[in-house]
């Protein structure tokens, strides 16, 4: 049985046609070089002066060859990825942090990805393992951390898993892991920020100051509540457990909690809120009760999220350095030396939601 070469193939370049599934051997054959030479060229380890260099690139283009980025990462060449891992798809605070980190990382030629855990530790563990398998360069683990000892051990195990593939873990907006100074962490002064808020209210004559938010279980909650306690201590005021208003970090939940709290505590003249979201819910509930801010009651938030300066009245709050945290994390991710645990300063911003205690 004889075969006849089609007219279209006469004079065509040797090698397989473009199929989208070309491999390195196909590229080498078409470029008339060894697979080792083709590999060096496509991995960026060839200086490009030899004619074979141009033939390899032309062959790869003709065949639609796609470089295996994972393989290149495993060889220590090519772009490495940086994963931003948070509990939820980034909201306004984490979005600022992510944007700053992304700018630094991508300007240096690396990839940046967003991953979420939905607060599920098993999902978080599986995600970190998967990122290690994919040879991620850096994982930015973002947000409040559980204060339980076993959770510190879990995070330490993440650093070990990533370290085995030459990757690093950077903790963002959370405290360091005890006895693991090798794990980079960047936090900000939660405690000092809330203490400044309480001191501001004391200076305005307030003495019955409620705290709205959770107080234990997570690092951010405990650090901010510590600031509330320190502020009262500084004013020689004993903490009153009845003035602690537990609520989730949600405006609707906060509004419901404040509505139930107000009838039992008409003498409270100020609310320090764990976050701006909670402060927004508190303000809603106070207005519904016929109370004016700040004439009757003062309200303070934390985070300085977008738009709180545009509320009526504008919200007095603590500005958290989310952009600075993301920028520094990005710079460490691309190779800037890490000099130990970092705690960035916050800024207390006085706006219209606080005023003198009513007489």
Automatic annotation (TrEMBL):
UniProt-recorded Gene Ontology molecular function terms: DNA binding
Domain HTH lacI-type per the UniProt entry, residue ranges: 22-76
Domain of life per record: Bacteria
SUPFAM superfamilies cross-referenced by the UniProt entry: lambda repressor-like DNA-binding domains, Periplasmic binding protein-like I
Keywords in alphabetical order: DNA-binding, Membrane, Transcription, Transcription regulation, Transmembrane, Transmembrane helix
Region (Disordered) location: 1-21
Keyword Iron-sulfur set for record: no
Membrane-traversing stretches: 82-101
Biased segments, Basic and acidic residues type: 1-11
PROSITE patterns for the chain: HTH_LACI_1, HTH_LACI_2
UniProt entry tagged with the keyword Calcium: no
PANTHER family, alphabetized: LACI-RELATED TRANSCRIPTIONAL REPRESSOR (PTHR30146), LACTOSE OPERON REPRESSOR (PTHR30146:SF153)
The name this protein goes by in its record: LacI family DNA-binding transcriptional regulator
């Amino acid at each position: 049985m004889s075969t006849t070469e089609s007219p279209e193939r006469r004079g065509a370049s040797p090698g397989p046609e473009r199929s989208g599934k070309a491999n390195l051997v196909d590229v080498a054959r078409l470029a008339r070089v060894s697979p080792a030479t083709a590999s060096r060229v496509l991995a960026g380890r060839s200086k490009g002066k030899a004619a074979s260099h141009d033939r390899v690139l032309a062959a790869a283009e003709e065949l639609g060859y796609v470089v295996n980025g994972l393989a290149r990462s495993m060889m220590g060449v090519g772009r490495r990825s940086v994963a931003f891992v948070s509990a939820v798809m980034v909201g306004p605070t984490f979005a600022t942090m992510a944007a700053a980190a992304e700018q630094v990382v991508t300007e240096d030629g690396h990839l940046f990805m967003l991953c979420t855990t939905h607060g599920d530790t098993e999902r978080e563990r599986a995600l970190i393992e998967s990122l290690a398998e994919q040879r991620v360069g850096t994982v930015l683990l973002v947000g409040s951390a559980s204060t339980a000892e076993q959770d510190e051990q879990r995070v330490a195990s993440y650093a070990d898993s990533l370290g085995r593939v030459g990757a690093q873990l950077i903790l963002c907006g959370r405290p360091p892991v005890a006895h693991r100074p090798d794990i980079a962490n960047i936090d900000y002064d939660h405690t000092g920020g809330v203490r400044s808020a309480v001191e501001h209210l004391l200076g305005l004559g307030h003495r019955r100051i409620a705290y709205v938010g959770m107080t234990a279980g997570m690092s951010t909650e405990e650090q901010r509540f510590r600031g509330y306690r320190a502020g009262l201590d500084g004013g020689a005021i004993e903490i009153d457990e009845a003035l602690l208003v537990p609520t989730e970090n949600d405006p609707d939940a906060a509004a419901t909690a404040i509505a139930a709290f107000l009838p039992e505590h008409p003498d409270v003249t100020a609310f320090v809120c764990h976050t701006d979201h909670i402060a927004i819910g508190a303000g809603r509930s106070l207005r519904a009760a016929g109370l004016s801010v700040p004439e009757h009651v003062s309200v303070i938030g934390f985070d300085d999220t977008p738009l709180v300066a545009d509320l009526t009245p504008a919200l007095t709050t603590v500005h958290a350095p989310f952009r600075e945290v993301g920028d520094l994390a990005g710079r460490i991710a691309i190779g800037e030396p890490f000099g130990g645990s970092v705690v960035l300063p916050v800024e207390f911003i006085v706006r219209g939601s606080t005023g003198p205690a009513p007489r």
